[in-house]
């Protein structure tokens, strides 16, 4: 695949996918890269009593993706449309070869049906080689004046999330808030050398160290670090309430372990009041 794909977005004609297209188009404009609008089709009617000619299916797919491209051109200039035969995950992964970002809506129909609740969201978020952004129709822009929030736990994926969050904050001129969850109760064993207060201070210092290299790279980004007491699910959902974008790693440890496959990921994808971006660790770091 060529390396000029820029941002890739899935579109199927649903309201959620239209919100994703508009978010992706704005993102492509900010990055100064092209936008690819992709649509998946397949022989879904093959088992029905009346067969549908392949030519008609292709024509319908072309009409849908052209509509998505028209929405995109209201937000940005360089837009191309592609269709692919097969499941949504495979079509999007193919379209995203060489891309910087994949964007999808939370729920769709046709090629992207059941995105968040079904296997497509999990497969994209778990296996895509580039960051994936999931946009909810009702909160497509988050809080336009809010910060970019990133969840940090020190894992390889969360380090990629920090880098992505700084990029997004810099593009938007937004404040960046790096958040780590701290358990309400900490087991430190018998005769501890450190009390819980000291351990929390060490956690705050570590969070600052993890963020420091990106502070130097993006000196214009205002940065705030927070160690927040609570379960990761509630900590990130609370932070998302005032955010314009939430960024997390695909897999973590400690506070954000199993983020995409467990209750935390489901809470964010279903309930976060902002788009959710998922960053992935390099393959050799997993």
Written overview of the protein:
With 286 residues, this protein is α/β, with parallel strands linked by helices. The protein contains eight helices and ten strands. It has helices spanning 15-31, 54-73, 88-95, 119-127, 156-172, 196-217, 232-240, 263-271; strands spanning 7-10, 35-41, 79-85, 101-105, 132-135, 148-151, 176-182, 223-229, 245-249, 276-279. It has a ten-stranded mixed beta sheet, sandwiched between helices. Helix 8 (263-271) links the parallel strand 9 and strand 10. Helix 1 crosses helix 2 and helix 5 crosses helix 6 (196-217). It is elongated. It starts with 6 loop residues before the first strand and ends in a 7-residue tail after the last strand.
Beta-strand level of the residues, as a percent range?
A: 15-25%
Task: Determine the number of helices (DSSP H or I, runs of at least 4 residues).
Answer: 8
Number of strands: 10
Please state the overall shape, judged from the principal axes of the Cα atoms: elongated
How many strands, which pairing sense, and closed or not: the largest β-sheet? 10 strands, mixed
Distance between the termini: 24 Å
Task: Return residue spans where pLDDT drops below 50 for at least 5 consecutive residues.
Answer: 113-118, 257-262
| Largest beta sheet: strand ordering | 3-2-1-4-5-10-9-6-7-8
The ordered string of helix (H) and strand (E) elements is EHEHEHEHEEHEHEHEHE
- Quickly give the structural class: alpha/beta
Instruction: Please give the radius of gyration in angstroms.
Output: 20 Å
């Amino acid at each position: 695949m060529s390396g000029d794909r820029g941002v890739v977005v899935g579109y199927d004609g649903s309201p959620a996918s239209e919100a994703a297209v508009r978010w992706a188009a704005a993102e492509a404009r900010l990055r100064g890269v092209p936008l690819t609008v992709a649509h998946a089709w397949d022989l879904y009617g093959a088992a029905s009593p009346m067969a549908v000619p392949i030519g008609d299916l292709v024509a319908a797919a072309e009409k849908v993706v052209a509509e998505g491209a028209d929405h995109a051109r209201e937000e940005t200039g360089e837009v191309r449309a592609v269709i692919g035969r097969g499941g949504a995950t495979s079509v999007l992964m193919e379209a995203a070869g060489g891309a910087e970002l994949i964007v999808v809506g939370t729920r769709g129909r046709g090629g992207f049906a059941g995105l968040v609740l079904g296997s497509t969201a999990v497969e994209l978020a778990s296996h895509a080689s580039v960051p994936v952004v999931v946009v909810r129709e009702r909160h497509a822009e988050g809080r336009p004046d809010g910060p970019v929030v990133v969840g940090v736990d020190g894992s390889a994926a969360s380090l990629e999330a920090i880098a992505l969050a700084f990029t997004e904050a810099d593009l938007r001129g937004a404040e960046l808030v790096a958040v780590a969850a701290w358990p309400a109760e900490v087991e430190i064993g018998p005769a501890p050398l450190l009390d819980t207060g000291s351990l929390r201070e060490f956690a705050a210092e570590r969070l600052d160290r993890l963020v420091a290299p990106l502070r130097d790279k993006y000196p214009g980004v205002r940065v705030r670090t927070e160690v927040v007491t609570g379960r990761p699910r509630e900590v990130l959902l609370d932070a998302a309430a005032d955010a314009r974008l939430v960024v997390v790693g695909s897999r973590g440890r400690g506070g954000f372990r199993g983020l995409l496959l467990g209750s935390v990921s489901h809470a964010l994808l279903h309930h976060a009041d902002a788009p959710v971006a998922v960053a992935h660790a390099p393959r050799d770091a997993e």
